[in-house]
Amino acid sequence: MNEFDGMKDDLLSRIDRGLKHGIAEGAKSLDLYLIKYNELSISMDAGIITAQRGGTIGVGCRCVLDKRMGFASASGITDSAVDFAIESAIVGAKINQSDDRWESFIQNPNSGKDGIIDTSVLDLSSEEAVLGADTIFQEAKNFDPRITSVSGGVYVGYGAFAVGNTDGIAKASATTGTFGQSYITAVENGKTKTGFDYIMDRGVPSFDGIGTKGAEKAIKLLNSTPLGKSEQSKFIFDPLAAGQFIKTALSNSVNGKSVVEGRSSFADRIGDQVGVKDLDIYDDGQILEDPNVQAIDGEGYPRTTTPIIEKGVLKTFIFDNYYAKSYGTESTGNANRASPQSYESLPTVSPTTISVTPGSKDLDGLIAEIGNGILVTDFLMGMMHSNLISGDFSIVSPSSFVIENCEVKHPVEAVTIAGNLYSAFNQIISFGNENQLTFMGKVPSIAFDGFTVSG
Q: What topology does CATH give the domain 7-221?
């Protein structure tokens, strides 16, 4: 048996011992989070490829005494590290202010499903990962002499985390995953453009094509011209841009913390029509091919599929245990701990993987439907600078194309797009038929009407 095979059992054993130690120290209510994650990182920068092995290993402990919560963490999962975190959390609980919501930790005994476990990740050597990164580099450099810079890399990881508490919960989840990405710069006549491509997998994918696709995007953008006007327009956001847009729109509006604290424009709108009738959005923590999927969240609640908007109607908000109690409901399994040193952070409410039900039209069909407008591709700049209370946004798309007479004509220089995140749900024209998982979720292309474009 290799280290990975016994990792969950080892973490659970350490949690069991730690909880017993905490009780012996006088703690009546404890919550322990242990993680062990190994990572191989291959980075490319200016033609230099470097390899580094590392990872995350540590413990976080929450202790509740008389409705006062203390939190402490420690690097490592040895008995001494676990005991230090527990004893420090007990000290914190004795001096912090009381809060009626701190009565107990989660008590739900269920778990979701682990994502696909592909042990080929464990066998990938540093040399093989470097070859994958070199494949990306060589493809990009050889694509066109105007390519001046290639960066990115390959990132391979595997590990597990476990959560246990004095309310009888003891659960663990394991993961494997690989990411590959390229950032390509092309220069011609003083003009500089960048292209991007990536791959993500629970196992070890082929890295062929990532450098070529990123380079192709950068070269194509060298032909961009200024838009030369400001007007209301129709738009098609490709899956990456649409995913980023939707995830930002949801980050505050359906976040249980924001709802409880009165900072969400959707706070009193459960059951209201907030989008077009074809709009279905889910927070899906059980897309098993997603490298980020786990069986449980950061405090042990089962990951699940939560309907946020169905047929345009707002159905629910997302919660961790703490804010669920404030709202009078149960957690939705959205307690997440910040990476990379997740054991150092308290759980916070955030989405898992955003999923939007696709439509029936391919990209050509969407283009034909809007006739004239702007095709927005890849990442948007300034998205998280939007006003998440009012929903007003002004963002920049560095990778856009003009659509005229139902055809994509030419790229344009960076354009500014303005509108409102929440009104946008009612400005959707149609959905693409893509069902591809991206960094931003499982979101198809989306056509909108009525945003302002300037450039």
A: PmbA/TldD fold (3.30.2290)
